[in-house]
Design brief:
253 residues; alpha/beta; Rossmann fold; binds NADP nicotinamide-adenine-dinucleotide phosphate
Amino acid sequence: MTADLPLAGRGCVVTGGSRGIGAAVVRLALAQGADVVFGYHSDEKQARALADELCAAHPERRCTPLYADVADTGAAARFAAAALDRLDRFDILVNNAGITRDTLFARMAPEQWHQVIGTNLDSMYTITRPLLMPLVKQRSGAIVNIASSAGLHGTPGQTAYSAAKAGIIGFTKALAKEIGSRGVTVNAVAPGLIETDMTAAIPGDRAEFLRSLIPGQAFGSPQDVAHLVCFLASDRARYITGQAVEISGGLVV
Ligand SMILES: NC(=O)c1ccc[n+]([C@@H]2O[C@H](COP(=O)([O-])OP(=O)(O)OC[C@H]3O[C@@H](n4cnc5c(N)ncnc54)[C@H](OP(=O)(O)O)[C@@H]3O)[C@@H](O)[C@H]2O)c1
C-alpha cells in the first residue's frame, strides 16, 4: 500500500457497478490501484462503455463487467464464480446493487415488497455466500455493504426499502463478529441523499423539501460515497468492523 494507491494490487468485486454510486466506487478503486470486476443488470452497453473508458485510462489494471442479477441465487452464484475466475486475487467485496419501489405501505403490492427485499437484502446472501470462503481462507479482506439512512431512521414511503437496509446493517454486524478472527472486516455505509438516477426519480417539490433538511442544502455526490467505501476497503480501516457509517451531510444529527 502506498499513500496514493491504498488499494494497490487488490482484487475488488462491485455489484451494480455500471452507474451511480457503484460506478463511482469502480472508478475510484481502479484509480487507487485495484483490479475490478463489476456487475451490471439491465444495460450491458453502458457497462461495456464504462469498462472501455477505465481500461484505456488504466492500461496496467483490469476492469471487467459481468452480468449479474443479485436477486437470483443461480445468476449471483455464476457471477461470483466468473468474478473469481477473472481476478488474480480477491480482497474486496462491495455489495452495492439496490432498488427502490416507493409507495405508502397501505398501497404496497406484494411484488413491490418482494422486489425491494430481493434486490437489496437477499443479495447479501446470494452474492456474499459464494465469495466469503476465499476471503476467510486468505485470512484478509474487506466487505462493504451499501445500506441507507432509511435503514437507520426509517423513511415514510419506503417501508420495504427501510426494512431491507436495516436488515443489511444487522447482517453486517453479525457477519463482522463471525469472521473478525479471520482478518476480514465487514462494514456498512449508509448514504443519505446522493445525486444518482435513484434520487432523480424523486418529484421536484419533494426533492426540494428533502434538500432543505440537509445542513449544507445539497445532496451528496457518488464520489463522496466512493471515498468512504474505498477507505473502509483499505488497510487504513483495518481496525474498523461491524459499523454502519452514515454519510448524509448531516441530514440526521
Ligand atoms: N442515491 C441515493 O441517494 C442512495 C441513498 C442511500 C442508499 N443508496 C444505495 O446505494 C446503492 C446504489 O444506489 P444508486 O443511487 O447508485 O442507484 P442507481 O443509480 O439506481 O443504480 C442502481 C444500481 O443497482 C443495479 N441493480 C439494480 N437491480 C439489480 C439487480 N437485480 N441485480 C444486479 N444489479 C442491480 C443497477 O444495475 P443496472 O444499471 O445494470 O440496472 C445499478 O447499477 C443502492 O444500494 C441504494 O439503495 C442510494
